[in-house]
Design a protein that fits this description.
Strand content: 15-25%
Number of domains: 2
CATH topology of the largest domain: TIM Barrel
Structural class: alpha/beta
Number of helices: 10
Strand order of the largest sheet: 1-2-3-4-5-6-7-9
Order of helices and strands: EHEHEHEHEHEHEHEHEHHEEEEEEEEEEE
Helix content: 25-40%
Number of strands: 20
Radius of gyration: 22 Å
Largest sheet: 8 strands, parallel, barrel
Length: about 400
């Protein structure tokens, strides 16, 4: 049986390395322009060359997102971009028919994957895209398992990809103009400011006596605020249907988020293939998924197209039960060097997350700055080291601190 691909977000080169390290089979990343996440760091051309080297060394895949909806003035620069980048990724992720036409004209050898932004919700749309040369389609998030099964049954010879975890959008497949209207930052050109997460008050001028059945408090309402998807429960169903790739959302999330979510889904997928008959979701996996920054989780649309359960209208705050403290930069026989991301204080209880979920607990009773001075507080963006006491820690290990109950 061909194993389903685990596809992870890479908002920068560091996160790309982390995604591979913690079990992703493939990553998707954007360049400095023309991605729907232009507000994240993304990768430079030189970093994409390094990423190509790395993925070939590790036998992984790399997909480059070129999924904006461009205007006339963008086309010439995009043509130059395609010519420059075309030999780097295993596939480009696109959504605009004009860009598909452009690829066919100047780089017909390149594999194209269709973004969820294209709103593919039925089997005929899949046939259409397949006939014009698309190799893989990321189906719209709004589909149920039955919808997906029907699409696969009527389209055997094209790769299908499904979002399995992460933030969702209040608009179908993310095609929203709220940001354009309220801030002048264009959602479909990669500059969304996420006004769907803001709090609003609803007043209808001519219907003052009409009651809107929504939850409300003195802080206002969050009518457009969607919950986060957690689809780990449906891994067996999607594998049986014949989905080719499970995609995690989160190019703007932290390296810790990428590491923790990827390792949980890696573990779940591997355990299913090892023993499908006895596979079950473990409580520890669900608890770990709650330890990354997230909004209330939902099972999405997999069970049915239920649009009511998707919204969290009394708050848009993230739930945070752990802090990302640092990233291990280097390990030698004497020292472990750590880049600090959140303040670490003497005697803090720190946890190192591992790929096999056997987390390591340490008490930070002794650590040093680069001048070799023992210190009691390490601030963000500094580099410190601890003495190596044969800890099973390696480069790219993630340090976190759980919040007290």
């Amino acid at each position: 049986m061909k194993k389903i691909e685990l596809l992870a977000p890479a908002g920068n080169f560091e996160k790309l390395k982390i995604a591979y390290e913690y079990g992703a089979d493939a990553v998707y990343a954007g360049a400095k322009k023309f991605s729907l996440r232009n507000l994240t760091e993304n990768l430079s051309y030189e970093e994409f060359l390094k990423a190509k080297e790395l993925k070939e060394k590790l036998n992984k895949k790399l997909y480059l997102t070129l999924n904006i909806y461009p205007y006339n003035e963008d086309i010439q620069e995009i043509e130059e971009f395609i010519t420059k980048f075309k030999e780097i990724p295993d596939a480009f992720i696109v959504s605009d028919p004009g860009l598909i036409y452009l690829f066919k004209k100047i780089a017909p050898e390149v594999k194209l994957h269709l973004s969820t932004q294209a709103n593919t919700t039925n089997f005929l749309s899949v046939k259409f895209w397949k006939d014009i040369g698309i190799k893989r389609i990321n189906l719209a998030r709004e589909l149920s398992l039955e919808d997906i099964k029907e699409i696969r049954r009527k389209n055997k010879d094209i790769e299908l990809e499904v979002f399995i975890h992460g933030a969702m959008c209040m608009a179908i497949s993310g095609r929203c103009l709220l940001s354009n209207f309220l801030t002048g930052r264009a959602s479909n050109q990669g500059e969304c400011t996420h006004p769907c997460r803001w709090k609003y008050y609803f007043i209808e001028e001519t219907r003052k006596n009409e009651i809107f059945e929504i939850e409300e408090d003195d802080r206002g309402i969050y009518l457009f605020n969607s919950k986060d998807l957690c689809g780990i429960y449906f891994i067996p169903d999607l594998i049986k249907i014949g989905i080719d790739s499970l995609k995690i959302e989160g190019r703007m999330k932290s390296a810790y988020y990428v590491a923790n979510v990827v390792r949980i889904y890696r573990k779940a997928i591997d355990e299913y293939y090892n023993n499908p008959e006895k596979f079950k979701i473990k409580d520890e996996w669900l608890e770990e998924l709650k330890l990354v920054s997230h909004r209330d989780y939902t099972k999405g649309f997999f069970l049915k197209r239920n649009f009511i359960d998707m919204q969290k209208i009394d708050s848009s705050k993230y739930i945070r039960k752990a802090d990302f403290l640092g990233l291990v930069l280097e390990v030698n026989k004497d020292k472990i060097f750590i880049e600090v991301r959140n303040k670490i204080k003497k005697d803090d209880e720190v946890e190192i997350i591992t790929k096999d979920l056997k987390n390591i607990k340490l008490k930070f009773d002794e650590f040093y700055n680069l001048d070799g001075e023992k210190i009691e507080i390490a601030n963000p963006n500094s580099i410190i080291y601890i003495k190596n006491r044969n800890f099973p820690i390696h480069e790219n290990s993630i340090l976190r601190r759980k919040h007290l109950p």
